[in-house]
């Protein structure tokens, strides 16, 4: 439920005019690239605006207003590539950027995989997906919202002794991608957030946790008071943690932690890791990695999806497709360069995946806890102990011990370990309560057995 109300900003919305200016700049740069002898060229133009405020203990710490822009030019002379960029839109700077890109290309080695994506793959249906929702937010109002969020959390319980602060952010971005195939794609998007981090307890018994809400439209944000109270509840729940005996147990990753498991899969099946043979999933397309009930689908056309798009970073038309179906890895995640290196075709994933949905086969988190009976619920992960080449997984963790299907006590200072291939095949359930704050859309994920290192 949302309590943040703002005035109508449509009358002052100049985004289309700004996009037209960026498009004109991109087209002009492509003409200069052709005049300089480039056989192929691509140009990216972007502009971003943002407001971010941070408060702590009832006082304003920072207020930051940003305006950034950038121009990127890439040219191809045969199979030789050169790139240059600038943030200066003066004509002489743009001319120099093209000249620099061309000079670089003339001195580089031929790369058989270099070049634009195939012209036949360019997007033609250039729709928007309800991702443009400017927020008429000034600094005073942003500060008031952040203070209200922190105050709600601090007032929730006397055991909230300190705060790491609250923040409010609002941003908008415009971008144009154009290439010498004649493709010109325009995108615009907004993103807003409210968050709070609180500290419960005293001295060495202090515990920190927080909560945040993120959305493309401010009307989809949780209220500041609800965010503050949720942050307080999470911090209080972590008081008086205990260790657990070292052993092998079921491990349930909360939704916000579960998406990191999916992220490891995406890293392992991305083109760059595969053609360098730096992945434990080399040559795994078409093989069973997950239980036969499990599926993951890319949904690039979701209204208000965090990563919805009609085309990828190379202008290739996106499409709905399965990444995993029946537990089998259906394809890799490729742009045109990595696809050519592998002798394959791009999957329209230059720049990443677009709204990857993991299908659920279980109820919400409470139902999953009851079904698990006894084990570990992970709500925080620490460290970078994941080896993408071998799949070995070892990370610091914190969360809650589950006994008889309910939370027994908080847990921290432990390590969970396994191998990603074994963990993927050992997934027993995916929950239905999806965390909406990421383009990786998954509920909690239960891995049937992992090594948990706690007290000996």
TrEMBL record:
Family the entry assigns: Belongs to the peptidase U62 family.
Name recorded for this polypeptide: Metalloprotease PmbA
Keywords: Hydrolase, Metalloprotease, Protease
Chain's gene name: pmbA
Gene3D superfamilies attached to this UniProt entry: PmbA/TldD superfamily
Keyword Protease in record: yes
Molecular function as annotated in GO: metallopeptidase activity
Residue span(s) of domain Metalloprotease TldD/E C-terminal: 246-454
Species of provenance: Luteimonas lutimaris
Pfam families per the UniProt record, alphabetical: PmbA_TldD_1st (PF01523), PmbA_TldD_2nd (PF19290), PmbA_TldD_3rd (PF19289)
Entry-linked NCBIfam families: PRK11040.1
Organism ancestry: Bacteria, Pseudomonadati, Pseudomonadota, Gammaproteobacteria, Lysobacterales
Metalloprotease TldD/E central domain: residues covered: 133-239
SUPFAM superfamilies: Putative modulator of DNA gyrase, PmbA/TldD (SSF111283)
PANTHER family in the cross-refs: METALLOPROTEASE PMBA
Domain Metalloprotease TldD/E N-terminal: 41-105
Record carries keyword Ion transport: no
């Amino acid at each position: 439920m949302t309590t943040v109300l703002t005035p109508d900003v449509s009358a002052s919305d100049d985004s289309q005019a700004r996009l037209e200016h960026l498009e004109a700049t991109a087209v002009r740069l492509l003409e200069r690239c052709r005049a300089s002898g480039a056989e192929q060229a691509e140009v990216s133009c972007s502009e971003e605006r943002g407001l971010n405020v941070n408060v702590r203990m009832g006082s304003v710490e920072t207020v930051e207003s940003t305006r950034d822009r950038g121009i990127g030019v890439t040219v191809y002379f045969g199979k030789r590539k050169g790139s240059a960029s600038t943030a200066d839109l003066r004509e002489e700077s743009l001319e120099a950027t093209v000249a620099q890109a061309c000079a670089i290309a003339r001195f580089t080695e031929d790369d058989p995989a270099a070049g634009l994506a195939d012209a036949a793959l360019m997007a033609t249906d250039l729709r928007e997906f309800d991702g443009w929702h400017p927020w008429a937010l000034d600094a005073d109002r942003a500060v008031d919202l952040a203070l209200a969020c922190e105050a709600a959390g601090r007032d929730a319980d006397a055991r909230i002794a300190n705060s790491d602060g609250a923040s409010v952010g609002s941003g908008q971005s415009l971008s144009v991608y154009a290439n010498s195939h004649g493709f010109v794609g325009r995108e615009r998007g907004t993103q807003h957030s409210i968050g709070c981090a609180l500290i419960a307890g005293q001295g060495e018994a202090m515990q920190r946790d927080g909560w945040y809400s993120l959305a493309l439209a401010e009307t989809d944000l949780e209220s500041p008071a609800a965010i503050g109270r949720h942050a307080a509840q999470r911090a209080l729940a972590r008081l008086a943690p205990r260790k657990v005996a070292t052993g092998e147990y079921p491990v349930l990753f909360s939704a916000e932690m579960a998406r990191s498991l999916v992220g490891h899969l995406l890293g392992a099946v991305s083109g760059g890791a595969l053609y360098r043979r730096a992945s434990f999933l080399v040559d795994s397309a078409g093989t069973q990695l997950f239980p036969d009930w499990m599926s993951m689908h890319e949904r690039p056309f979701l209204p208000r999806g965090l990563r919805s798009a009609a085309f990828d970073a190379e202008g290739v038309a996106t499409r709905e497709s399965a990444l995993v179906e029946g537990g089998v890895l259906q394809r890799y995640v490729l742009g045109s360069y990595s696809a050519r290196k592998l002798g394959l075709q791009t999957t329209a994933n230059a720049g990443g995946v677009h709204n990857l949905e993991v299908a659920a086969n279980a109820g919400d988190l409470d139902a999953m806890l009851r079904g698990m009976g006894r084990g570990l619920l992970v709500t925080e992960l620490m460290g970078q102990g994941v080896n993408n080449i071998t799949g070995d997984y070892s990370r610091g963790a914190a969360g809650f011990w589950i006994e008889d299907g309910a939370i027994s006590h908080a847990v921290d200072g432990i390590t969970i370990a396994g191998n990603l291939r074994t963990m993927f095949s050992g997934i027993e359930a995916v929950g239905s309560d999806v965390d909406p704050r990421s383009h990786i859309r998954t509920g909690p994920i239960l891995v049937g057995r992992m090594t948990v290192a706690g007290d000996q």
